[in-house]
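Supplementary Methods S3. Input chains for the assembly prediction are listed below.
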Amino acid sequence: MFVGKNLITLKQVDSTNNYAKLLTANSRPVPDGTVILADTQTGGRGQAGTSWVSEPGLNLTFSVLLECGFLPPVRQFHLSMAVSLGIVEALGRLMHRMAPAGGEDGNPTRLPALAIKWPNDILLDRKKMGGILIENLLAGSRMKSSIVGIGLNINQEDFPGLPGATSLKLGLSGSGLRLPPGDALTGVSGNLHLPAVLDTVCHGIEARFLQLKSGAYDSLKEDYLRYLSGFGRKQRFCRLAAGPESGAGLSGHSVGIPHPREDVFEGVIAGITPEGKLLISTSEGMLAFEKKQIRSLSGN
Amino acid sequence: MEIKEIQDLIKFVAKSGVSEVSIERDDFKITIKTGKEQTVINTTLPAPQAALPPVQPAPAPEAPKPSAGKEDKAEATEQNLVTIKSPMIGTFYRSSSPDNPPFVNVGDEIRSGQVLCIIEAMKLFNEIESEVAGRIVKILAEDASPVEYDQPLFLVEPL
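Predicted structure tokens for the full assembly:
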């Protein structure tokens, strides 16, 4: 395993992605798969400038450095799919490991549902448990390296003002699952042991990354769609105005504003385009949307 | 269209502050683009008029004089310019955030490996490094605007 073999742990940093970027800018080469882990991240970024709220020491905030010279830039959404898939599969394995100890009365326990919200949020029972922010470095039109920033809520139990947020621990206790005593996953005070979770997640990412490297784009996409929240289900969407001045994705830029009522429409998520746009089957036919152009009105 | 008219039109466009004007008629098409540092004129004239003398670019206000006024030399430079194109569909950003200064401006000398811009697509942020050392002659895309695959982004004069 190469992902996480070289692990750099920081007490506190503005953003592990920024730290990784500085590291790669130095002349000494950084080993492929290097992970930079921070106990506290002060400037973590989410989408459209939303900052990532994380209590110190309870969650996993880390960046993975991956050499991506093999990947054509137009295929980079497949990297995003590989990473999110690797994460949900790893979390699924962790939960399965706990399941036997779970059922209070011996009945089979229902595991919390893992899903990916397009493009790459990690959902646990329809609430957001994690996010991914990928920064690539290109020499002209050639991919060099990727810095994959990942935030996963693991042991945090309070999310003031964030009703849509959850953590792995919250999701598990909601399902009546308890950690097996003496398990390597159990840390002190009933929390999940972060290094063990990180190790499993790195394994998951590596497996899917190697699949990406082998060029198995179609099967990656197929598996991604199996986890895609709302896939194949009829739901209502809202078209967002995303002019050049409004729909920006960098922190601080404003986000799209909803159109008037008539721009609410019904459709079924039918897939994604090679560049990662969401394909929605509607009465007007098949439409493709970018992140800033659309919002689901059905929650997650 | 007479040369005089074209010259007047160029002056008018340069003064107006707009960045591009295109006029198209049955047998005639003219596009005038102004940058901060220079003015580019592309004309498509019908065949009989093709022998007209080349149109002199009207200097934009406050523009530095092109290299010592030698006409043929300036032309040679134009041909040597390197176009840096977008490697993907996405949104073009000239700075890492609205509070930060642009990575590069027209006139800047850049080295190979220097970051020129960010192209964002589907929550993937791509820092594009220059593969050539040179000087930025023109920036061809607007900040925070959508760009297509292969769309020219920068003109660089190799140094």
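Confidence is low (pLDDT under 50) at residues 36-76 of chain B. The radius of gyration of chain B is 17 Å.
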